[in-house]
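anyone seen this seq b4? input:
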Amino acid sequence: MQIYLDYSATTPPRPEAIAAMQAVLTQTWGNPSSLHEWGQRSATALELARTQIAHLINAPPDGIVFTSGGTEADNLAIFGITRRYDTPQHLIISGVEHSAIAEPVRLLEQQGWSVTRLPVDRQGRVHPLDLQAALQPNTVLVSVIYGQSEVGTLQPVEALGKICRSQGVLFHTDAVQVAGRLAIDVEKLPVDLLSLSSHKIYGPQGVGALYVRPGVELVPLLGGGGQEMKLRSGTQAVPAIAGFGSAAEWASRELKTETPRLIELRDRLFDRLADLPYLYPTGDRLHRLPHHVSFCLVPPAGETGITGKTVVRQLNLAGIGISAGSACHSGKLSPSPILLAMGYGDREALGGIRLTLGRDTTEADIEWTAMVLKQILDRLMPKSLAVSL
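predicted toks r here
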């Protein structure tokens, strides 16, 4: 029996997305910039996908800029704004950003930019008053992740965006984990830039998008032929984009039924693991991604070498796939920077695990996973007493 519970890392491409990709590869494979019939058929497929993705977040189609994924979308948002300035200004991010935001900002800091990293509470949430206090006359951009991939916490993006808009400061959010799982309406949500990723919503890997509010000017990262409204040069990956578009359309259709189903399964898994003495829930239980379950494993004193990755490996041997913290850090045995930012110590921050649910997850999967995880922890730490955080 195999159970995949790592949907925040990537999702399996749905059959409809694969079919859309195959259709482009076999029938509409022309260069969408070409004026002849082959090129125009490809251009039509490209614009259909743009419309499908725009519909997912209620955006105008010309506000969607295709990228190679969420990381490039984040980088385009950060550098696209900051390169407008000849001299370093001030940026604000949260202390729990994905590395696709944290690393570009770190590079800018080395170049002289002033950076404020907003603190978060024990649940990983930013307080809007902290943002209000951090704004400076030369603040040019605020970027706060919508749904934190490691601990599942949802940020008060609407409140944060309203503060930025009232002060005339641009606001970006990485919505990679939220899109397709919760409704997003950029006509109502006060955001100027918003990042998306195909492979988080059952589309192919290697393609994403940045929503750019009309009137927001960006400096492109790439020089070239001026594709994507001159914001992302290079021949578009039309097969992948078509798969992305199909996945977005189906996500829109299924949102009202799939989101409550995931929430029910998520809460069931939390309840099944609530009595385990070594696991402590992380993130905000109320303001939370609907598919996301996360814990901090805290071995008793004297138990060494038992970390979140230990549990990942043991569950993998049992045919269950989960993550230890963020997938982008899965190769490193170092404390999670997200848990450290939330106030956990180094020892606790080595113990983060994440179980994320998806379209194929069933109640039976939840029950089996809970049973197997209990057996693993009993075997790893059979006679030890739990410690309190």
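Confidence is low (pLDDT under 50) at residues 326-330. The CA atoms of residues 34 and 40 lie 7 Å apart. kinda curious what u guys think
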